[in-house]
Model the fold of this input.
Amino acid sequence: MSKPEKVVKGVKFGVLSPEMIRRMSVTAIVTPEVYDENGIPIEGGVMDPRLGVIEPGQRCATCGNTLAQCPGHFGHLELAKPVIHIGYVKHIYMLLKATCRSCNRVKIPEEDVVKYRDLYRRLRERWPQLASSMVEFIRQRASKALECPHCKARQFRVRLEKPATFIEEGGRGKLYPDVIKQWLSNIPSSDLEVLGLDPEVARPEWMIINVLPIPPIAVRPSIVLETGMRAEDDLTHKLVDIIRANEKLKEALNSGAPEIIVEDLWELLQYHVMTFIDNELPGVPVAKRRSGMPLKTLAQRLKGKEGRFRGNLSGKRVDFSARTVISPDPNLDVNEVGVPYEVAMTLTVPEHVTPWNIDRMREYVLNGPYKWPGANYVVDPSGRRLDLRYVKDRKALAEGLKPGYVVERHLVNGDVVLFNRQPSLHRMSIMAHRVRVLPGKTFRLHLAVCPPYNADFDGDEMNLHVPQTVEARAEAEELLLVEKQILSPRYGGPIIGGIQDYISGGYLLTLKTTILTKDQVSDLLATIDYSGEIPEPAILSPVEAWTGKQVFSLLLPEDFNFIGETKLSSGSLKCTSEECFWDTLLIVKKGKILAGTVDKTVIGSQQPKSLMHYLIMEKGVKFGAEFMNKAFKLFLRYIEMVGLTMTLDDIGPKRSALESAVKVIKNSYSEVDKLIEMYRAGQLEPVPGRTLSETLEIRILDVLARARDESGATVVEYMSLANPVYVMARTGARGSGLNITQMSVVLGQQSVRGERIWRGYRGRVLPHYRHGDLSPEARGFVASSFYKGLSPLEVFFHAAGGREGLVDTAVRTSQSGYMQRRLINALQDLYVEYDMSVRSPYGELVQFRYGEDSVDPRKTAFGKAVDIDRIIVKNMGWRMSL
Amino acid sequence: MSEKSEKSSTSGKRHSRRKKPSSVEEVRRAVVEPGELVDRLIEEQGLRQRLPPVLVSSVRSLILKKYGARPDELEIRREFEILAKVAQRIHAAMEPAQKIVPKAIVDEVLFKLMDTAYRYSLTDEEIARIREDVVQSYLRALVEPGEPVGTVAAQSIGEPSTQMTLRTFHFAGVRELNVTLGLPRLIELVDAKQKPETPIMEIYLTEEHKHDLKAALEVARRLEHTSLEAVTASAEVDLITESVIVRLDKDMLEDKGLTVEDVVNALSRERSLAGRVRVDESDPLVLAVEVPKAYSHITKILRFRELILKTRIKGVRGIRKVILQRRYDPSAGKHEYVLLTEGSNLAEVLALPQVDHRRTRTNDVHEIERVLGIEAARQALINEIMNTLREQGLEVDVRHVMLVADLMTWSGIVRQIGRHGIVGEKRSVLARAAFEITAKQLFDASASGEFDSLRGVTENLVIGQLMPFGTSMVELKTSPQQLARGGDAK
Done:
């Protein structure tokens, strides 16, 4: 705390000069030998002990530190002949083209150079994009000059032969790296600036390597296998190759070998240095290990998803985390997460000992690491960590605790932790929960938080992280707690709310016909720890009885008014007035439900402008979370009392209904037959822009889709709200009308790529059909229902159609994942300034006012900052009537 | 508005001619034009001077709703008195809110309040409470400075896209047209692809043409790109006379509304063909096109045939297919004809006099940028993204989409979200390196001696520091220890 915080203000990039490399170096590497016969690293070899420590306990020969402290040290290798740094080939090529071959100045007249330099300097800070376009223009202009404007020398075309050979056509022919180095070092610094280079930190001659830095051992540690064999890192292998090639070249030069041999060896050195830097160069054979695996060299370490940048710097592995399977627990609060004892006893929270918690801390220390709630470590004021597993006398340690100590105690009830399910697509994928330590081996969560995590319990696993500082805990509690995330920033509405049985339960409880005895009411109210008065019974005689609406109303604030349609209110059950028989218009006045039931559009998740949404907006998220806790427990308790299940009979259609449904399908078959006949006779009128057969397919699909909907409707029509399946579909708890149709009447047309299924044998899908059979059943129309059961052929079609769905999801996730990564990368730096403008961190204005009205979508009612209809109902709904 | 005042002024004249009624009975019996009466009352009482326009028009419409069919001057006058008073009351009560809440919202509030007051009557207390709620809910809805709206927008668009279908094609109302929808379309939009996979235009016609099937068909014919091939029954190469003999298809000519003469003229417009097209004397449907010197070699003569078959006879370049659709126009209250086209050419279509250039649209964002400018392109992006999402039943607030569109267009050109656009042009080396093509970014950065000033998210994450947004945006810090010691807190 008292240490002043060090802040990195910036990172400057540049190229190392040979002098710098030598100065950084602790030793020159001179031999390709690595170890002597005894397995001791040879001095002057690539594993020279001065380059850093690899084994714990050792002390560094250079800095004297141990493994944890020693950062490692660079060495250097003097190359017999310079080679081109493959990463800078493009830059070198540009310079060779843009500068004069004899005076080595940029091929632009002096006055223009001055002008450009001036302009470039001004652009560079404010308009980097323009500056780089300008540099591009200058480069091209300079490259075009056939004669140097300074020395008037004639220019030749320089050609780059990949990967790193430069050829001056008609001039000197092949340009060797030493020649190029000479050329580049002659380019005046003032000229380099207009070519977009920074001569201060990146002189072009430095892009030709004649001294190679040897990375510290810490970067390329060798591993000792179980067999006792040493396995060296890929980089070390590559370095040995380089040194060997270098030695050979040196020898050849010293012995005055013929030019061809020298050139070959030089080329080899170039190859090794190139692949040391990047082993995936186009046109260059990949350097391989003996096993045939390509070597992972410098560029490969940085690149890609598992590379240094994306794998270690943008995403890091962390301590204080746990992962296990999740399962539901309706008895938890929405804010809570159930944590197994084992996890709670492994993860710790550092807690400073104070006079106020010292007794508790002593208790934890006394309990030790194996008894919950205990502690795993104690840090004394000198910073020494005591592992309680090995502390003999915990009692003494506990006695000795005093302010200044830190106890790393077990996770206890009420601790705040972060809970996460991948893929983390939005911020609700990581929310803070309060810990509830429970027996069992799974994480337990409230069902209402499934939608934001997109979780189910078919084996999903989730991660848990324990914040370690007070700041982190405070932020987690204030910003990330589940209740603070109920309202989604995507649209103005709650993303957490009732699902499935909560919805059916709410409906059943608030049904007009739900009459409860005193026992039942007491039971229900006891489950939610209700402590107020029981209201006046709705029915006084022969026995006192209450309605379900009365019970639910106890959860609503007394000044709450609400009028809204329920999910049920559609089709024949539509209600538009208070007087409506179907009871599908929800009317709440002064906190009492007067009419209507509670279903998806009232308490459901992802339902903006619902009763739940307004309750949360007006009474606060804390109230909202508490309301959910209680209401949902109430609903489940009621379901437990009355039972909610389905049997096969519930989806079995009535005989009469089925008959009419079958008739509808029969009719559609003959209609299709007629179409096919017309098509065969050439009488079918083609849809403009479609071929005749396409037209036929479109028409048939139309007819069959209509047939399915109609036949489905005839059967569903006969269903009543006494049917639990129908109740679930109508209240929005689970399933849809289409699902019911498929279960009880007809599955309908199976399709692949939006077409009727036609692949398979020539002219037919399966050998059971005639060639060219266009009839519905031959092309994937499944006339059976799940209730009736599918014939083998129908099962085949159903599987073919079903497979498309699976393939689709698999493909889609990767595509949308990449799109989201790009979106995030492009947008993540934008934020709202104090003046409500949206800016990039460089002050660039993207929007003058966020969203044109500086309104946060999360705090709106479905996009509206002021929902005047609601405000009117809120204030005077108690005396409004419809 | 102008229409309304016009109506009232003409009827006003009629009214002034009438004699003054002498008794109550007569007043009742007098045929009153309610609208005109209310307008007069508004005028007399100077309502427009005292009240905002919404309230005035609300008063007017409320009276007309009730008495439009039952013109009773006395009752209307009484009702007017009451409503004017109510309006006055609401106006006065809402006054303090106007300084804080934007006008558009206040207007809506006033309108709804009038309606409510009319139906249920409102006490001053209730109006005051509603006013307080309006102000409160507006202030509460404002964004907090420091909010990372970019990330939120990206997530809000990215997350639902996982739920989108991959099915590329879908028929947009008409079976004849394929339109790219769903995830592929969304990716296409954020990619700022030069040409959409399925360019579509929706062409509205001007008042004179939109209700007339014939006229609409005529426009459709003019638009549709027709090549010689489309009206040709056969085309053969005659090696002896060195010409291509084209036999035109009579039915197709009729269908496209062309004559042989049109075809000859169109062909003759081509510079290389001028004067080389002749109509066969014996059969008016047969054309002989003489092969020019450049193509006279036997190997090239077939290429020439292909070339002339591709010649545009009429239509607009790029418009491959035109489909006529009858649509309900809610503003006019009747059906109108709308042209849907496959292929897009905004500039040329807008130039046609029969086209209503205000409503005509295309789904090609780059074309909109070229023809109408960057502001239009921004709006087009917003519309297209919103439509794509909504079509899939996914609800995303416009503000998120606006931010994406603004980021793509604020530099003056439409930039892609990705390597070749916004991300690739980021100022931070580390952020670029962490996205894609890592090694190249680092080499380039070192050569030009770039300086990363670590201001964005990725850079600070890489370095291990807090990013300067949200709770970390605050730069003012106090040191409690130093304060306790009585020193300067820095």
